[in-house]
Design a protein that fits this description.
Blueprint: H1 20-30, H2 34-44, H3 48-57
Helix pairs in contact: 1-2, 2-3
């Protein structure tokens, strides 16, 4: 598993909705708004696969 500059483990399989850069990345990748990503995280949880599936259904 990758580590941050502070030595903490990073989990690439999750979307941190509170981190603007992660929301912005996911929104750009999926071609949707940041608000859509935040709503998907809120309803589907923070699993990247579930968020992407939720976004692609709409």
């Amino acid at each position: 598993m990758a580590q941050s500059s502070r030595g903490r483990a990073l989990d690439r399989a999750k979307v941190a909705a509170g981190q603007d850069h992660e929301v912005r990345y996911e929104a750009k990748k999926e071609g949707v708004s940041k608000d859509s990503v935040k709503k998907a995280v809120k309803s589907a949880g923070n699993s990247r696969k579930k968020v992407e599936a939720k976004i692609s259904r709409h």
